Amino acid sequence: MKGLELEVLGVEVERYAAVPTLSFRVRLEEPDHGKVHAVLLRTQVRIEPERRSYGPAERDGLVELFGQPSQWSGSLHPFLWAELATCVGPFQGATEVALPMAVSYDLEVAAGRYLQGLRGGEVPLVLLFSGTVFRVHDGRPLVEPIPWQAEGRLGLPRSVWEEAMDRFYPGSGWIRLPRTTIDALGEYKARGALATWDEAVRSLLRAAEVPQ
C-alpha cells in the first residue's frame, strides 16, 4: 500500500490577500485512487541558495548573509523561509490545493536579505511535506503519516515575489530601527524642516557623500 503522493505545480501571487502573499499549488494523489477523508498537511519552505549562480552585484549584496564569495563553498546552505499548516478536505483519487505563504521585506530575516540581494532569475526552493492522512482502505479507516521523503522543488521567479511586494508597497521597502534611532531621526527631520522620512535619510546620505 503506497503512501500519499505530492507534487508542486507552481507558485503565484495571491490576489485577494490582506498582506503580500504567495500561493503554492500542490497536487495530492492517493495511488490506490481511494477516498481520502482529510489531510493535515505541514510544509517547510526552504531556500537552497547553492542551486543557482550569482552575478557580481548579487555577490556583493549577499556578503552580509553568506560572507565573502571565497567562503561560499562552506556557507551556502539551505535555510528555512516559512512553515505552513493546511487542512485538506475530502477527495477521491487526487486533488489540488493552494498553500498561501505571507512574505515581507523584513531585512532582519535571512529570506528578506537574500531576496533583496538578488537582481533577477529564480529563487531555488524545496518544499518538505509531513503530516497525517485520514482515509479508508478495504472498508477500514486508516490514519497514516505522509512519507518522510515527500518533497517538491521549484524555482520561484524573483519577479513574482517583487510583484507581491509591489501590490502593497510599490517601489518601497522596510527597515526596522530601534525607537531611539527613530526618535533621533525625527528630531533631525524636524530641525531641517524636512517634509518626509525619505528626505531626512537622503539628507544624511548627502552629508556622508554616499551616492544615491
Explain briefly what this protein structure is.
This is DUF6084 family protein. The protein has 212 residues and is of the alpha+beta class.
Number of DSSP-assigned strands: 9
The number of domains: 2
N- to C-terminal separation?
62 Å
Overall pLDDT: 91
Range of helix content: 25-40%
**Secondary-structure element pattern, one letter each:** EEEHHHEEEHEEEHHH
**Shape call:** elongated
- What is the name of the CATH superfamily of the largest domain? Immunoglobulins
Question: Gyration radius, to the nearest Å?
Answer: 22 Å
Query: Count of helical segments?
Result: 7
Structural class: alpha+beta
Top CATH class of the largest domain: Mainly Beta
What fraction of residues sit in β-strands?
35-45%
Protein name: DUF6084 family protein
Pfam families: DUF6084
InterPro entries: DUF6084
Structural description of this entry:
Helices cover 27% and strands 38% of the residues. The chain is built from 7 helices and 9 strands; from the N terminus they run βββαααβββαβββααα. The mean pLDDT is 91. It has 2 domains: 5-168, Immunoglobulins (Immunoglobulin-like), CATH 2.60.40; 177-212. Strands 3, 4, 5, 7, 8 and 9 form a 6-stranded antiparallel β-sheet that branches. A hairpin with a 7-residue loop joins β1 and β2 (21-29). With 212 residues, the chain is an alpha+beta fold. The N and C termini lie far apart (62 Å).
